[in-house]
Amino acid sequence: MKQEIKIVHEFSFSVQKLFAYLEEHENLKTLFKPARIVRLRNGDTSRNGVGSVRSLRILLAPPFEETVTAYKENELIEYRITKGSPLRNHKGVMRFSSFPGGSRLNYTIEFEGKLPLIAFFVKIGLERSIRKGLTQIGN
Question: How many domains are contained in the chain?
């Protein structure tokens, strides 16, 4: 069964600062605690752009890889799980926008589980971790 996480979070600093932080693979550990994140490959035309790959390992589970599939500076980062993981049809989309006095992140993640109920439990833990992590950015 398809699961979807939709989060909108506002920050009191510029979209440029927010994007610069979240585009760096290593900084995503703030959102995906207790994951260990390692950059495997830089992007085709920029360090964090299309084609860049990161490995994530959560506790004792096997690592999996995410690849950036769309990238527009200060506006958009899309990525997919491309290797490993008990999930399938995964797509993460971060959309960035500014407003007077700050910036906004619209973050959507869609996925299905390869086994019954796994996606449901992943959704609960992942959404909680992301929401908590977003409150720590910029503090």
Answer: 1
Can you give the pTM of this predicted structure? 0.94
Tokens 């926008």 belong to which residue? 97
Region of poorest pLDDT, from 15-24, 52-61, 87-96: 52-61
90 is in which domain, residue-wise?
Answer: 3-136
Tally Cβ neighbours within 10 Å of residue 109: 21
Residue 128: give its domain's CATH number: 3.30.530.20
Residue range 89-120, pLDDT digits in tens: 999 999 999 999 999 999 999 999 988 888 99
Closest C-alpha among 8, 13, 6, 5 to residue 137: 13
DSSP secondary structure letter of residue 63: P
Amino acid at 27: N
- What are the distances in angstroms from CA 32 to CA 17, 25, 133? 20, 11, 7
